[in-house]
Amino acid sequence: MPLWLQGALESAQAALISALVVAVPICAVWATAGFLNGAPDVLARLAGQAWLLIHGVPLLLDTAGIGSAAQPQSGVLSLAPLGLTLIPFLLAWRAGRRLARASYTDQLWQALLGSWLMYAAFGLTTGFVCRTDDVGVGLWSAALVPLVPFGLGMVIGARREAGSWSRLIGVDAVDWLARTSQHSRWAGSYLGSAIKAGFVALMAGLAMSCVLLAATLFIHWNLVIAVYEALDAGPLGGAVLTIAQLGFLPNLAVFALAWTSGAGFALGVGSQAGALGTAVGPLPSIPVFAALPAGSLDYGMVALVVPVLAGTLAGWWFLREGENHFDEWLSIKIRARWFTAAVSTLALGVMIGCVAGLLAAGLAWLARGSAGIGRLTEIGPDPLRTALFVAAEVGIGVVIGYAAGPWLERQQKLREADLEPASL
């Protein structure tokens, strides 16, 4: 089979499977008479619109005649459930591994091109068919935006199967680095380690924020259950509502990171929820919103320690990596060790903090969006504000972690020596 055709078949399979996964809960709600209009064509368009939304395609809503006159007559639904976006991503990851296994190094582009063209055509067709008077879809967006999660998953899957980027794209990175100067290799190692440390800080902060999110859900579980009981959606309706909330779980994790950093996040125009205080207006009856800490938080500033601890771990990790070539270069130029150590550590904190801030801004941009109706046209953290808060707090933690790293290493070696059996 030609590689371009095999790539097209793999992407068609992934598109159909993801569409079926989206259609199943819609059919379940239809089976319980949950829709006012249960016509097959209406349900098919709704499933197509949901498929586009989980890929990040914004939907143009026309709310004329719905609700009060204070509500806008049109809006954009752009709040994508990142948890459900993992479905096409994982399917693309699987397809990328299969295509890499079937291709030589210099032929993989044929399979990738065929798969991406097929997926873009599927998105374009879905957007064209599923447009209605109430829900508009930009055809260019429907064709190109789904390629972002799908293409990313396919490239990562192909890289996983190939084992290295050199085998994937046919470029020997080791040979290319060998032709550069020693100073360039040192600078590249320093920057590469700083970027990795920034990623470590972001992941550590995100993990600790998820722990706090789980804790607040557990503490306010009775309020969450009360909202479920008030909705009285029945077993199937409650299950669909729970699946929808699980789809937004990655978004909530990013919201929790912004909350712990002090930057906060919006739940409607003019609202702000953060560790320094929460002031939001009326919210829709969604159970997870009942777990939101409200009012003046006496000990909210304690949560700001989370990004600092994440930066401390990143600073310690960078010390163990042993790639602080800027400190080595500076100590050669200037003999005052107290000065070079302070300057290099501060520079390291600024660099890793900036990397973590940029990554946090990217997550905030992905997690935020608009529900398209009323006040809920602004949901999620502000990317710039989140980047500034995370960068500053992670930078402080990096300085602490790198400075305390030698002591932590010495304590760890002492513990390992105590655990070793005594020699006879």
UniProtKB/TrEMBL annotation:
> Can you say what this protein is called?
Integral membrane protein
Write the record's keywords in alphabetical order, separated by commas.
Answer: Membrane, Transmembrane, Transmembrane helix
Alphabetized InterPro entries for the sequence: DUF6350
Transmembrane segment boundaries: 12-38, 50-70, 76-96, 108-129, 135-158, 199-219, 239-261, 273-293, 299-319, 339-367, 387-405
